[in-house]
Amino acid sequence: MREHGVGAPELLGRLERRQSSEPDVHAGRLFGLVYPSGRSDLEDLIVEVNRRYLFGNALNPFRFPELAALEAEVVSAVASLLHRPETGQRAGAMTSGGTESILLSMLVHRERARAGGIELPQILAPASAHPAYAKAAHYLGLELVQIPLDGAWRADAEAARSLVTARTAVIVASAFSYPYGIMDPVEELAAIAAGAGAGCHVDACIGAFVLPFLKRLGHDVPPFDFSVPGVTTMSADVHKYGYVPKGASVVLHRADDWFDLQGFLYGKWGAGLYGSAAMAGARPASPIACSWAVLNYLGLEGYTEIVSGLAEITARLRSFLEGLAGVEIVGDPIGPVLAVRSDPDLDLHAVADAMADRRWYLNRNLDPRGLQVMLSPGHASVMDEFMADLTTSLAAVRGGASAGRRHDGDARYS
């Protein structure tokens, strides 16, 4: 801590210089981490709502009842989008992100398993599932059992069936997976879970604001949400393809009484009853208000329009990638997440390094070794330049101009 403060102009100048060395989140040159909508009207609205709620605290719903009502309306809207049965009761809560939503879902499944006498409950999750399930096992005293993938890079349902034990608390399905953008067989996995008396969590952190609108546009979308019998909980990130700034996710429960298991109440101190519905105590108000604003501003029609454009640029890039010699798309992705692998003589990680030199930031997969991109609507305006630079980078690596720097960790973060 400095003895004397620094003036605002100098501080802002310092921040501008430091930020300039990092990727520009508005430039469409990142493929993940941020999800630019490409719409200035939407971003202007978000800036104004964020300004109004920047210093708010969502900890106490009795002190700020309207903020609590905004959260409840966001949860209800997402629950309706994902066909959660309408009961008039609270379906879930907003969280800081997909990891927290997943942790809370796994907590609820743990509590139900322990109530049934299971001391060390198991999570069965596909090998392609997000690391949040391993994190949940680590934090919550659970055992993670990985379901192998089939030849289509989906969770192998028959392998999952063989892995079920008396300790299985929950089976996870991704709709769709982060590494490959591929749908797991939700109906099969949910049926296996129901038959075993276990829960089924559908991780729609990426797909919740893509899949329903692809279906509205006439695309073939397998059932993946609460319309599937046996699905007990879901996670949906509003700060991905919901186009809200970071800090906004929703966890949902099919049954009304499951929500109570994720909350925390404590009264053995001098300040009276303390309660929270999520991991955090104090929570920023802005992600809640921004989520409410964006969901209402866009509505089903607005999201459908955005996803229509997103589907067009995805189809365009997919066609381009399919035409590249020695490069193959991994599996059959359903949405805007595409993974590619290559012939052994082409190092795609070196291609990613060459692209980084041109200030394009691709994600790297390790199994299979290759690249992954998460497209956003903001990429539409830069797609021509991106494909031209990718063609140049591929040629350079094939010609031996780049040895690669092996940034193998880049693909671990979404």
Layout of helices and strands, plus pairs?
Elements: H1 8-19, H2 40-53, H3 65-81, E1 92-95, H4 98-115, E2 122-126, H5 132-140, E3 143-147, H6 157-163, E4 168-174, H7 186-195, E5 199-203, H8 211-216, E6 233-237, E7 249-253, H9 259-262, E8 264-266, E9 274-276, H10 286-322, E10 327-329, E11 337-342, H11 348-357, E12 363-366, E13 369-374, H12 383-398
Helix pairs in contact: 2-10, 3-10, 4-5, 11-12
In a nutshell, what does this entry contain?
By secondary structure, this protein is α/β, with parallel strands linked by helices. 39% of the residues lie in helices and 15% in strands.
Radius of gyration, CA atoms, in whole angstroms = 22 Å
Total domain units: 2
How much is the average pLDDT? Answer: 95
Number of helices: 12
Which class of the largest domain in CATH terms? Alpha Beta
Strand order of the largest sheet: 1-7-6-5-4-2-3
The percent of residues in helical segments reads 25-40%
Largest sheet, described in full?
7 strands, mixed
Beta-strand fraction estimate: 5-15%
Number of strands: 13
From the spread of the alpha carbons, the general shape counts as globular
Which fold does the CATH topology of the largest domain refer to? Answer: Aspartate Aminotransferase, domain 2
N-to-C span: 33 Å
CATH superfamily heading of the largest domain? Type I PLP-dependent aspartate aminotransferase-like (Major domain)
